[in-house]
């Protein structure tokens, strides 16, 4: 079999794709295979496993395939029936509960084959029969037969177990069966001749083995011929291109030598790809740089990773490998792209180097997150030698400055406050006294000169005994670069009039800060403390960097100092409306705050919440939220301020419902030269495949509507929700039509499954809006607003939709009663565009001399009135709408605690003013 014949496979697959076939590039055609396994059900036919239907499956212990002739394969993929694209095991439990078994792939020229190509651990919670996704990738192997086998008699703790003690008794797996719904085998027709190769010296560390595996698999998919992983000695048998994965560990045997070689340019960081004749070198230090180089190289070939599962990659079909842009040296736009969520939870086992690594686990790192909770993921780090640490840290400083993003309890621990005396304790004005440590969540007296000096002494002592390079050498995480002084969450700041409170500014109102509302700024005392510590450290000729967090009550820059010394790093929270551009009026508070920070501090970083889709006020992850345009806009804005480094909290349960947001966020920070249209095109083509265009229409309809109408989806707490104007009827109609087109276009089970998640999210919106039983396409059921006369809206036509965290309204006889936060609404058909007057007859009950505020919306546009009478009075709102169906929505604007501020509505009129 020649290399030329191998390439025919891709051409055939492309033709099948044009004819509506389900085969992807590099997926072998199953039609000539003979089934030799013991799986039963569905007639025991191999066709059941290749029928593009998750509802049909076989059960048993093994699958045997006779290709009928030699083939070269590099991947086996199987899935069960239970939506495994969205299921990830509980990583915490997986540390102490053993797998149910091991799926092994064997390849050979005789039956049964004996050469083991790869393994995959079965999660402990995969059920009985086992129902899970299995994806095994390996260096190309030639053979006529393939055996895929569930093995349960495994000696865990020797070659296959991750190494943790088993806290529970292993389950009885003697009678365990396996359910399989779909099977794919990727590879190349025939025993292809030697051509290109990935060159890797053995033994190789795990990150470099991963880099080699990525190159081998995707180069094969791109070029249509196998690219095996070989040793340098064996590479002489390959006359084509050598893709060499370099190990520079020899240049970094210790910290001093490493730093000397870094300064001399012998240990390049970031993306570094060289060309020497027919050899392409992926080289850099530390090992993460080699992986970044490999992924950047593959990206420039058109490869994308759009979702955290085994079907989440996109490889352009029929495209050869392009080397024209080499050599390549690239430094990303952001140094620190921190996953402030547990990205390691996408991997069910603490170690992956004894099995085929799960694609879900690689997703964040391929897309350029570079650190997560206490982990660098598969990027390595153990190879980096640490700086010497003399030790001998005094006992009172033992807590160092650990803890992120809140660590005041480690900066000055309670036992130190107790030992130093009450002058260091925080003063609570409401209590009229200093609070004993542990009595409440109150800061220490931050501007006490003795305490400031003690903290500066601690910085110097820790920096001498355990300098940062000894703890986290060459870390890319921005918070690892500083000794952090970060307030606790939901803290009360010291109100001592002699020291702390005198530094505070006037009541500024936090405005854009999520969950804070409007409170006096405490920035004066906090940043006086930060500044004082930094100046005291710098006065001792130390280069130690002091970290601060602009968060909640200390979000605003202080009036003083006008400028921080250059040894201060401030991480500023990114508040506002995350779904809207920074120029939006909804984000009017955002830009001046950031401009003020840029003027005061040369070192800025970002603490973001954009991917935090759920919290206690919105526990359901299904709501669709379009953020790509805003994510790109904010990244460009922050890059202009030099504040692109930082991290983002995230709700991983929202992955299946908002995958576009998780894809766009790290990628734009890696390379800010991209735009939203490019990222959307990449994502929707790769994720929705044959349904890409109607799904892009679905997404753009919503995103364009939000931005053009300035609709914020900020709901409260730190999440998204159904805000007034968010989903008008006209928009829902367009989205529904696009989604239906996408479902009609879908042919592959993967796309159908993904569209099912989108449908769940869309139906969730309809349910929340009370529209689940409404035919959106039929205008006959909607009240018509005439152009020449007014319309009295029957109160019974107003409905109270399900609103997250409660909708406290009730209809009784002749009025709507708002007892606390609430919303009522009804769709209206406007035959003509124009300005309309809505008149609401209402009376109110004040609380603490504050009257209720009524918001009135037509579609996205709203107006506000204070209901300032305890007797019924008329309140008018002038609003403009285009022709069509739009919602009239009345919403409570300032609900009081304990529901003490009530109002009643007994009449609603609407009439055209102009058209």
Plain-language structure description:
By secondary structure, the protein is an alpha/beta fold. The chain has four domains: 1-192, Galactose-binding domain-like (Jelly Rolls, Sandwich), CATH 2.60.120.260; 193-385, Chitobiase, domain 2 (2-Layer Sandwich), CATH 3.30.379; 400-673, no CATH class; 779-914, Sandwich (Jelly Rolls). The chain has 18 helices and 35 strands. The strands form eight sheets. Strands 1, 3, 4, 5, 6 and 8 form a six-stranded antiparallel beta sheet that branches. Strands 10-9-11-13-12-16 form a six-stranded mixed beta sheet. Helix 9 (449-465) packs across helix 11 (523-538) and helix 13 (628-641) runs parallel beside helix 14 (659-670). It is globular, with a radius of gyration of 31 Å.
